[in-house]
Design goal:
Pfam families: FA_hydroxylase. By secondary structure, the protein is mainly α. The protein has one domain. The chain has 13 helices and no strands. The termini are far apart.
């Protein structure tokens, strides 16, 4: 197809890589990227968890809970098995739908503004759908006991536990992630980027640390690690913080009241311990409420 102009540098790279590859092969990159980023992105948090530095300990949301390297690697191993036996088949069977809605691989590549606004739509759609699907898994006892309980084995989340879940939950909540691209079809580049960003976001919210310098702090209505950590801490009886990314759904539907109270308590406790650290010159010791 002639574009009537010279290819950009990015389009040249895309053309050289994709020219001799089928659309299905390119689509399968989604699983490959998920595994790569799931493996690499949590590594800094693994190091922080193992070092237990005084500088970082103050930002740990549940500091009384610690994990060994073997425990974290066991979580990683189980998630990879789920990727192979749940995400892999989902990729295989979902491709005809992706092809039908028009996820294209051809040139031109989308503009930066097009990519940005499509990603905004995908995050909003996924967050809303995930809210109700997640809430459903808590509302129905069978859904929690047979499916969602697996994810809540981690009362204090760690980065590797972001996709740690029953295979059925991976598929159920995965539908929310696919919904945006199905409603607003995009280029394969945007599609792959969307799932990578969603995976990185999930890893951050399960990190167990609330860092004040995180760039996500500047995203309006963003929940973050402390927001989702509360949901894990309360566990089965939790009727709060069901949304995956933002806070607006929980606010609108009144499922964030317990969290808002506990957050005030947590912030006051953390400020008090920061002052104690300055006075005593030692790491603060948090006590669970």
């Amino acid at each position: 197809m002639s574009l009537g102009r010279n290819l950009t540098y990015g389009e040249t790279l895309w053309f050289n890589y994709t020219a001799n590859k089928s659309d299905f092969y390119l689509y399968c990159h989604n699983t490959i990227f998920l595994i790569i980023f799931y493996t690499l992105v949590p590594l800094p948090m693994v190091m922080i968890e193992l070092l237990r530095s005084k500088k970082f300990e103050i930002y740990k949301i549940q500091p009384k809970t610690t994990f060994t390297l073997s425990e974290m690697m066991e979580c990683y191993r189980k998630v990879l098995i789920t990727f192979v036996f749940a995400v892999g088949p989902l990729q295989l069977f979902s491709y005809p739908i992706i092809e039908w809605v028009g996820i294209r691989t051809s040139l031109p590549l989308p503009s930066a503004s097009e990519v940005f606004w499509q990603l905004v739509v995908y995050f909003l759609v996924e967050d809303y759908a995930n809210y109700w699907l997640h809430r459903m898994l808590h509302h129905y006892k069978w859904g929690y006991d047979k499916i969602h309980r697996v994810h809540h084995e981690y009362v204090a989340p760690i980065s590797f536990a972001a996709p740690y879940a029953h295979w059925a939950e991976i598929i159920i909540l995965g539908l929310a992630s696919f919904l945006g691209p199905l409603l607003v079809p995009c280029h394969m580049f945007t599609f792959l980027l969307w799932f990578v960003l969603r995976q990185i976001e999930a890893i951050e919210t399960h990190s167990g640390y609330e860092f004040p310098w995180s760039p996500s702090k500047y995203i309006p209505f963003y929940g973050g690690a402390i927001y989702h950590d509360y949901h894990h801490f309360v566990g089965e009886s939790c009727h709060s913080n069901f949304a995956s990314v933002f806070t607006y759904c929980d606010y609108i539907y009144g499922t964030d009241k317990g969290y808002r109270y506990q957050k005030e308590v947590f912030e006051k406790r953390r400020e008090k311990l920061k002052m104690e650290e300055k006075v005593n010159g030692s790491a603060p010791v948090f006590k669970s409420e």
